[in-house]
């Protein structure tokens, strides 16, 4: 018989668990009645806590939760077979603009065509005093759905300003040209 | 696992779940664990929980909720009268099919042609 100790889950770890449960719920959305979706998600949550209770560690860590989540079926497993072969709907797909390749122009003047600037507002809060071109590059990074690229561009711009690097639009031209405007999801992926 | 085997297992999951619950009141994760111990019936939670939810909606299962020290409440399932009837029907069908198929597989092909 398994003795299950009382489990205290911090808010951040509970968020991690909730994220997985929400993803499963999204997989079932539109395929099952709400009452059944709720039942299934409750069972999964109960199983997660049972598995956490089987662990010997005194204090629950993020690694403990991730290890338990890794033991579960992936959220996609809850899709019916025929739906698993369909591509998952992309976040924001209903409002997405047609894809256009990026064309390099002068980023410092902000004249970069074919780039949607849907995340420019959030960029302005971060780099508002650095000029329109800088903001456009930042927006480009966001609109391409790769948050890390923003950091790379910011670092590169810093090195360029210090005279230690070529202009951002030089040297990585292929990198920029090969990028396409994505769904503006900030680089996040679906899935738990 | 072959596609054929997957299809067969899929058709049997409801019977397997009902038969497991018929052995005594139990909860979701325990059902998954019990089935996992049986060769050929290793259904995982993504297969079992949707079936449990559907059977409960069809009132073939009754649910008793009990607090769990591990976290959220635990839901114990048992068969209702309708569930027992359904299990009986399914078990009869399965036995009939299994007997016929076994006879077919074990018969002498030359004897059948005579």
What is the strand and helix layout of this fold?
The complex is a heterodimer of chains A (192) and B (114).
Chain A: H1 11-28, H2 34-53, H3 62-71, H4 81-84, H5 120-127, H6 132-143, H7 147-161, H8 173-178
Chain B: H1 3-22, E1 26-27, H2 28-36, H3 45-57, E2 61-68, E3 71-79, H4 81-106, H5 109-113
Antiparallel strand pairs in B: 1-3, 2-3
Helix pairs in contact in B: 1-3, 1-4, 2-3
List the helices and strands of chain A in order: HHHHHHHH
Strand content of chain B: 15-25%
Question: Pairing-aware structural class of the strands and helices of chain B?
Answer: alpha+beta
Number of helices of chain B: 5
As a percent range, the share of helical residues of chain A equals 40-55%
- Encode the helix/strand succession of chain B as letters: HEHHEEHH
Percent in helix of chain B: 55-70%
Characteristic key phrases:
heterodimer; A: 192 residues; mainly alpha; 8 helices; disordered C terminus; B: 114 residues; alpha+beta; 5 helices; 3 strands; 17% strand
Please characterize this protein's 3D structure.
The complex is a heterodimer of chains A (192) and B (114). Chain A is an all-alpha fold. Chain A has eight helices and no strands. In chain A, helix 5 crosses helix 6 and helix 6 (132-143) runs antiparallel to helix 7. The longest helix of chain A is centred in the N-terminal third of the chain and has 20 residues, at 34-53. Chain B has 114 residues and is α+β, with helices and mostly antiparallel strands. Chain B is built from five helices and three strands. In chain B, helix 1 packs across helix 4. Chain B is elongated and about 65 Å long. The N and C termini of chain B lie far apart (37 Å). The model of chain B has no long low-confidence stretch (mean pLDDT 91).
């Amino acid at each position: 018989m398994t003795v299950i100790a009382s489990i205290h889950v911090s808010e951040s770890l509970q968020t991690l668990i909730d994220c997985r449960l929400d993803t499963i719920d999204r997989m079932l959305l539109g395929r099952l009645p709400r009452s059944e979706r709720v039942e299934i998600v409750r069972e999964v949550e109960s199983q997660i806590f049972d598995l956490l209770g089987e662990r010997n560690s005194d204090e629950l860590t993020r690694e403990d939760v991730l290890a338990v989540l890794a033991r579960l079926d992936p959220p996609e497993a809850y899709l019916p077979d025929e739906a698993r072969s369909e591509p998952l709907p992309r976040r924001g797909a209903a409002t997405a603009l047609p894809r256009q390749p990026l064309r390099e122009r002068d980023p410092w003047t902000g004249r970069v065509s074919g780039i949607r600037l849907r995340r420019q507002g959030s960029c302005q809060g971060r780099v508002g005093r650095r000029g329109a071109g800088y903001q456009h590059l930042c927006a480009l990074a966001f609109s391409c759905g790769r948050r890390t690229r923003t950091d790379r561009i910011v670092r590169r711009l810093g090195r360029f300003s210090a005279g230690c690097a070529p202009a951002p639009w030089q040297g990585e031209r292929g990198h920029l040209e090969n990028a396409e405007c994505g769904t503006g999801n900030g680089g996040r992926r679906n899935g738990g | 696992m072959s596609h054929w085997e997957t299809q067969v297992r899929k058709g049997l999951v409801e019977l397997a779940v009902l038969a497991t619950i018929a052995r005594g009141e139990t909860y979701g994760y325990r059902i998954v664990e019990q089935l996992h111990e049986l060769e050929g019936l290793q259904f995982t939670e993504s297969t079992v929980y949707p079936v449990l939810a559907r059977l409960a909606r069809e009132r073939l299962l009754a649910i008793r909720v009990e607090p769990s020290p591990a976290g959220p409440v635990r839901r114990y399932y048992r068969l209702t009268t309708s569930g027992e009837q359904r299990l009986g029907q399914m078990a009869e069908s399965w036995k009939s099919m299994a007997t016929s198929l076994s006879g077919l597989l074990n018969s002498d092909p030359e004897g059948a042609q005579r």
